[in-house]
């Protein structure tokens, strides 16, 4: 049920995440960040998220690319739930139709 | 009178403050449920057991990083990569904690440290907005710990409960690609990024990350595309901050 490598990974990510939660309070509460450091910190989560989904942008399947374009437009206008539904439905349908 | 007594005396009854927190979080909870179900279902497809998935969402409790971890999950997992990505995705907590810190000054650390375990985008946004409103209205203390904990615990229980349910139901759904469920990842990530959007200029590092990650994905074997994309975006942010 519980694999050792999986358990280790979970404990480590949980520890790292908790450090990010208390880190700002402990370290930064009496300091001001330099403009550059603040810019990097602000950009970081988006840089990671877009990198994780980058393979979807260079898919060889036209159905996937079209579905991603639809999802992209939905994400700029709609909230989480409708965007996810549109993304899933368009990918499912287009793969079925275009293959 | 101790500080915690002062905090409790300032609220109009601690139970109602907690309820106020849960209520204000309710709309967000409904949006979270499908997202939690998808994560749970995807995790089982990557070979995690239900117990392992529940441990991950219960101990880590940071959805964006869990989606990233599951997306990158292999058997056995690439531990260094996943831990590094978790740190990068969650590094925003550092800024969030720093923004909240002035309002936590009068609270004892033994209360702040457990409360910060439940810091997430939603509990932070609600807690900080509430504290700013109360400060503007002249209510002291501005930060209501029970309001924050109401929102945070509602979020926590929903997240852990529904990711677990997703893991239980996952095997019944079959292969997610067939139905397009895998498109939920880009959908979720793109909406999260829309929420972080401030300006075209501030988003330029994201474009750098996208291009570099895509090139690495196409031409370099392994999962290095995430690290390469993230790091190049951070370097771009560092360099671009100079001419801003």
TrEMBL record, chain A:
Transmembrane segments: 6-28, 40-59, 65-94
Protein name (record): Putative membrane protein
Source taxon at top rank: Bacteria
Keywords (A to Z) from UniProt: Membrane, Transmembrane, Transmembrane helix
Pfam families for the chain: AzlD
UniProtKB/TrEMBL annotation, chain B:
UniProt membrane topology term: Multi-pass membrane protein
Organism: Rhizobium loti (Mesorhizobium loti)
Main location per the UniProt record: membrane
Transmembrane segments: 21-41, 153-173, 179-197, 206-239
A Gene Ontology biological process term: L-valine transmembrane transport
Coiled coil: none
UniProtKB keywords: Cell membrane, Membrane, Transmembrane, Transmembrane helix, Transport
The organism's place on the tree of life at top rank: Bacteria
Protein name: 4-azaleucine resistance transporter AzlC
Location within or outside the cell: Cell membrane
Family recorded in the similarity comment: Belongs to the AzlC family.
GO cellular component terms, A-Z: plasma membrane
Entry annotated with the keyword Transport: yes
The keyword Transport is assigned to this record: yes
């Amino acid at each position: 049920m519980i694999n050792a490598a999986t358990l280790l990974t979970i404990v480590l990510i949980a520890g790292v995440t908790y450090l990010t939660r208390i880190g700002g309070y402990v370290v930064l509460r009496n300091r001001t960040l330099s403009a550059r450091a603040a810019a990097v910190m602000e950009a970081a989560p988006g840089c990671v998220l877009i990198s994780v989904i980058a393979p979807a942008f260079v898919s060889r399947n036209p159905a996937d690319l079209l579905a991603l374009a639809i999802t992209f437009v939905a994400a700029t206008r709609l909230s989480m739930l409708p965007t996810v539904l549109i993304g899933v439905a368009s990918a499912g349908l287009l793969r079925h139709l275009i293959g | 009178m101790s500080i915690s007594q002062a905090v409790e005396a300032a609220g109009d009854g601690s139970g109602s403050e907690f309820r106020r927190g849960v209520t204000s979080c309710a709309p967000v909870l409904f949006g979270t449920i499908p997202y939690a179900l998808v994560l749970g279902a995807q995790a089982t497809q990557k070979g995690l057991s239900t117990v392992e998935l529940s441990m991950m969402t219960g101990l880590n409790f940071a959805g964006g990083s869990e989606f990233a971890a599951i997306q990158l999950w292999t058997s056995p997992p690439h531990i260094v990569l996943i831990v590094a990505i978790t740190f990068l995705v969650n590094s925003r907590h550092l800024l969030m904690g720093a923004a909240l810190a002035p309002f936590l000054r009068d609270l004892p650390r033994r209360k702040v440290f457990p409360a910060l375990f439940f810091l997430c985008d939603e509990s932070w946004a609600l807690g900080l907005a509430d504290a700013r409103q109360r400060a503007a209205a002249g209510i002291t203390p501005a930060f209501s710990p029970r309001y924050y904990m109401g929102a945070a615990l509602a979020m926590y229980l929903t997240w852990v409960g529904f990711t677990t349910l997703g893991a239980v139901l996952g095997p019944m759904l079959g292969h997610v690609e067939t139905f397009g469920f895998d498109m939920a990842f880009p959908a979720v990530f793109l909406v999260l990024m829309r929420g972080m959007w401030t300006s075209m200029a501030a988003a330029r590092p994201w474009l750098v990350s996208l291009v570099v990650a895509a090139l690495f994905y196409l031409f370099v074997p392994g999962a290095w595309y995430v690290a390469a994309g993230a790091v190049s975006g951070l370097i771009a942010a560092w360099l671009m901050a100079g001419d801003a």
